[in-house]
Specification:
The chain has about 325 residues and is mainly β. It has helices spanning about 1-15, 205-215, 245-250, 280-285; strands at about 30-35, 40-45, 65-70, 75, 80-85, 90-95, 105-110, 120-125, 130, 135-140, 145-155, 165-175, 180-185, 190-195, 200-205, 220-235, 260-275, 300-305. The N and C termini lie far apart (about 60 Å).
Length: about 325
């Protein structure tokens, strides 16, 4: 009991304001990912205080702006205090900035209390090109009945790096409805990436994908509109050590940071999508109900990828 009493007395007598931070040029932490498909961009800012005291409320004046280094155009961001799910409060800046592919953006955080500008730069990935080959769908007779086979190849080129994520999806139209139904398939198709060429080849098994969709959807009540793919490409610096997002590794200070006069990371993400149709004849062989008018390409047809938001996943 004596030990506890002495410890309590000692703690009560101490000042609970700590000053462990060594004076340096690091003024703030900035975290954010600029997304080509987002309507609003967000960056969280955490000023570095010289004193750690939970009783002190930040009253520092902060300003954040972005500059397109390719055009020189600058945009001021709006800042506000946000309460997060865990109850903590933080400063978040937002802007309706629309990103341009291959452009480099400089993010600058300033304050009358800062000696220097805290900044970071990120370059948006390049728009790739996609070539979709003509599909091949055959029906033959086997010992147990009809045997259906279907295949198609998609080749992406001019990729700045290997995709972080690949999505394969189908678009349908419900009978008597004007709304589309987009269904994202689990991505498990064979693909090969050649870094030297910046090229990704994807081989689609159309029959296998049909079987997956049949198990999830009532294909007798919907019309096949088309197919699509979406690639998510990270900028050159938004790649963790070893290419793996390991929380234990990333938690180490300075492991992944591109902020000058501060800590944190500002990156950019590109999402690129293409859509195409298969011929009504091919769709019918696979036993889809096609939306009349689908015609196969007469040989490979190049399609420059259109930037679009990711489709929502059907329940």
């Amino acid at each position: 009991m004596m030990v506890v009493s002495m410890l309590t007395f000692t703690m009560a007598a101490c000042d609970d304001t700590l000053s462990p931070i060594i004076e340096s040029d690091q003024q703030a932490t900035m975290w954010g990912t600029l997304d080509m498909n987002a309507d609003v961009q967000y960056i969280r800012v955490i000023p570095i205080r010289p004193v750690i005291d939970k009783r002190i409320v930040d009253s520092i004046t902060l300003k954040l702006k972005s500059t397109d280094l390719n055009t020189g155009e600058s945009v001021d961001w709006a800042g506000s205090e946000i309460t997060f799910d865990d109850g903590s409060v933080g400063t978040v800046f937002k802007s309706d900035l629309k990103l341009e592919p291959e452009h480099t953006y400089r993010i600058e955080l300033t304050s009358p209390d800062f000696k220097f500008v805290t900044s970071a730069e990120t370059t948006v990935p390049t728009i790739p090109v996609a070539v979709v080959s003509e599909e091949s769908v055959t029906v033959s007779v086997g010992p147990t009945g009809a045997v259906i086979r279907g295949s198609q190849q998609v080749v992406w080129s001019e990729l700045s790096r290997e995709p972080h994520e690949i999505e394969q999806w189908y678009r349908f139209l419900e009978f008597g409805s004007y709304g589309f139904l987009d269904f994202k398939l689990p991505y498990d198709v064979p693909s090969s990436y050649e870094e030297a060429l910046g090229q990704l080849e994807i081989a689609l098994d159309l029959k296998r994908q049909y079987d997956t969709l049949r198990a999830k959807l009532n294909l007798d009540q919907i019309l096949l509109v088309g197919l699509g793919q979406t690639l998510t490409i990270l900028d050159d610096e938004l790649v963790p050590p070893g290419g793996v997002f390991d929380p234990e590794v990333l938690a180490q200070p300075g492991t992944m940071s591109n902020v000058e006069n501060g800590f944190g990371f500002i990156g950019s993400v590109g999402r690129f999508s293409i859509e195409w149709v298969i011929a009504d004849e091919s769709a019918e062989k696979l036993t889809y109900h096609p939306l009349n008018g689908g015609v196969s390409a007469n040989g490979p047809v190049g399609q420059k990828a259109d930037i679009s938001a990711r489709p929502w996943e059907a329940e």
